[in-house]
Amino acid sequence: MESNDLERRARFWFMYLRQSTKWKPRASKAVSISEMDDSWRYNAARWLLRRAQLAEMLYTFGELRVLGEPLPVVIGEADGEPIEVLDLEASLFSNRLPSEGSMAADAFDDEIDQRTQDPEVWLKTTPLYQALVQGLDV
Fold first, then answer.
1. Residues 11, 5: Cα–Cα separation, whole Å
2. Residues near 71 by Cβ (< 8 Å), separated by ≥ 6?
3. What's the number of domains the chain is made of?
4. Pseudo-torsion of CA 10, 63, 31, 53, nearest 10°?
5. Quick check: is 20 in a domain?
6. Are the C-beta atoms of residues 12 and 62 closer than 8 Å to each other?
7. 77, 83 in Cβ contact below 8 A?
8. What is residue 124's predicted lDDT score, i.e. its pLDDT?
9. How many angstroms separate the CA atoms of 57 and 45, rounded?
């Protein structure tokens, strides 16, 4: 797998597991979870659980990539829309990752460790999984 493909997949999983409205079947367009019947939602949740370890790995990689990206800076506006540029110099000192050695960094590391130790338990806390099983006996 190419580096760009892995990064694309990781970013997708990071954003996908954080939302609770859409299910994306493999070979078709996203479907509203509210339009899925109980059996489909149950099977989708089981599918996710079978892939919990891979989902956790991709989510974590995606999270690190997204939080470590350069921050956009608004430099003006055109037709009511902001004009943004990436401030690479400022981002060297102010991305969204916690500072090394800080309490926030320790908490972030602890959360990643917990995910890694039991990906299934962690996956069950994600908004996507919870939306899929809402109202089901699982």
1. 10
2. 86, 87, 90, 91, 94, 95, 96
3. 1
4. 60
5. yes
6. yes
7. yes
8. 97
9. 18
pLDDT at 85: 66
Gap between the Cα atoms of 61 and 14, Å rounded: 8
Residue whose entry in the numeric block shows the structure tokens 């800080």: 102
pLDDT digits (tens, 9 = 90+) for 3-31: 688 989 999 999 999 999 999 998 889 99
- Report yes or no on 77 lying in a domain: no
Q: What are phi and psi of 30, to 5 degrees?
A: -60, 145
Q: What is the per-residue pLDDT for 81?
A: 80
Q: Establish if 28 belongs to a structural domain.
A: yes
Q: Which residues of the chain have pLDDT under 70?
A: 1-3, 69-73, 85-99, 104-105, 108
Distance CA 63, CA 16 (A): 11
